[in-house]
Structures are given as C-alpha cells and as structure tokens.
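Hi R.,

As promised on Friday, here is the backbone we talked about, encoded as structure tokens. Could you run it through your design pipeline when you get a chance and send me back a sequence?
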C-alpha cells in the first residue's frame, strides 16, 4: 500500500529521531499541490488501531510544511504525555495520519459546527482546546465541544469563543 509523501516523511522523521536522535532535513521534492505553510496534526495508531500519539499545532510555526510535519511527527512519537515514547521497533508498524488544517474561521454558534466535517477550537482567555473532525465516538456537536473544553480546562458553562476548521487527512 503506498502512502502520501507527507506520511512517508512523518515515518522517516520518527525513525531518524527515535533511532539516532537526529532531526531529519526537509526534502525538497514534495508534491506541488500542497500549501507552503499550514498547521498540522500527526496522529499515530498501533497496528490494532489504538491511539499511540497525537500532537499538532493550531497555526503554522515552521517555515515550511515539510518542517512542520517533521516537528509534529517527532512530537507525536516522543512528547505526547499520555504515552511512553515510541520505540525504534514500533516505527514500521505505526499507522500514521497527517492532517493539514485549514485556517480557523470564527463561528457565532454551535449550529455552525459539524463534528464529522469540521474540527473545533474553543477559547476562553488564554485557554484553548482543539478537537479534530471525524473522531470515532464524537458524533454530536455537544460531545465535540465537551471534549474540546475538557482538553483546555474550560468549564462546561464558561463562555467560549468558537472557531471551526477543515482538515485534509493524508494516509
């Protein structure tokens, strides 16, 4: 099964980092149809489908999309506080998704959300929570907002600003 070049890049970045501690140099031959810079999430699953790591950004922080994917892939493999770091033996068997996020757009009400189509960002003061779209078990706007609030440490009745975004999911 062939994977998208950015998924291959994420795997190579994880392999280089967990095996040698080296941060991969970004390649220059990525497909031309990709944005120059974008917010990215990298999600890792085990061969049995269990989450193994997920880290990303709300806005681009690296000069190029390739560098963003490398950074988020390494972070998902080694910095997700929910999991021990990925071992060199695990790398080849990981199921890796790279999500490229559209710029967030503010929405006025939850009626403009759809957990299958849009990710959501909730903000209250300096606290901010993000939930990607199309997550198994997140079938309603209420559930999506509950998880996003919980991630940010925002109470269920605290006022929040809402934004939505779409993702291009690469596998």
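Update: got your reply. Pasting your designed sequence below so it's all in one thread:
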């Amino acid at each position: 099964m062939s994977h998208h070049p950015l998924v291959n890049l994420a795997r190579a970045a994880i392999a280089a980092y967990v095996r040698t501690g080296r941060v991969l140099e970004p390649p220059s031959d990525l497909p031309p149809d990709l944005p120059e810079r974008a917010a990215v999430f990298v999600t890792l699953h085990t061969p049995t489908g269990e989450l193994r790591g997920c880290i990303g950004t709300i806005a681009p922080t690296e000069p190029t999309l390739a560098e963003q994917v490398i950074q988020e892939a390494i972070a998902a493999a080694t910095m997700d506080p929910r999991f021990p770091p990925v071992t060199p033996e695990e790398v080849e068997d990981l199921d890796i998704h790279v999500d490229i996020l559209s710029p967030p757009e503010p929405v006025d009400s939850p009626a403009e959300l759809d957990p299958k189509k849009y990710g959501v960002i909730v903000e209250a003061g300096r606290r901010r929570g993000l939930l990607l779209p199309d997550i198994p078990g997140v079938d309603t706007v209420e559930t999506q907002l509950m998880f996003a609030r919980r991630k940010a440490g925002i109470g269920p009745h605290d006022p929040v600003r809402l934004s939505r975004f779409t993702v291009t999911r690469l596998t």
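One thing I noticed while checking it: The CA atoms of residues 77 and 86 lie 5 Å apart.

Thanks again,
M.
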